[in-house]
Q: What sequence folds into this?
């Protein structure tokens, strides 16, 4: 068998394999993002769930004239404070997320306390500190 036939068989099989791979994995929701750190995995887990806001967190948002886009940014680029989180609970783990924001041209820290359950993430409290 000549070298050209070998390459043709190899690339033919490789192409069929790639097509089958995309067919089987394409609809499964698998992603190739780099979510290897515990911080990134927790934030992605919370982002992919339905989110509810407590009345206390809604009042804090209105009081500081903020909207929910800051919450979305914090869940994308925030830092999970595992030392202040309660991850030993069985039902819903509680995480605290820190995110710097600019309010009235001053940098402040936004702290979100989120209760992460199986199918829903509840924003319990929002705290803004200097």
A:
């Amino acid at each position: 068998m000549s070298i050209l036939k070998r390459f043709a068989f190899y690339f033919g099989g490789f192409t069929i394999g790639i097509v089958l791979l995309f067919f089987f994995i394409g609809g499964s929701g698998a992603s190739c993002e780099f979510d290897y750190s515990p911080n990134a995995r927790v934030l992605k887990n919370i982002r992919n769930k339905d989110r509810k806001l407590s009345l206390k967190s809604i009042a804090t948002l209105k009081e500081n004239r903020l909207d929910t886009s800051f919450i979305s940014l914090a869940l994308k680029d925030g830092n999970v404070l595992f030392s202040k989180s309660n991850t030993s609970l069985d039902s819903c783990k509680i995480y605290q997320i820190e995110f710097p924001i600019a309010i009235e041209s001053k940098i402040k820290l936004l702290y979100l306390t989120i209760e992460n359950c199986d199918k829903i993430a509840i924003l319990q409290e929002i705290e803004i500190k200097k």
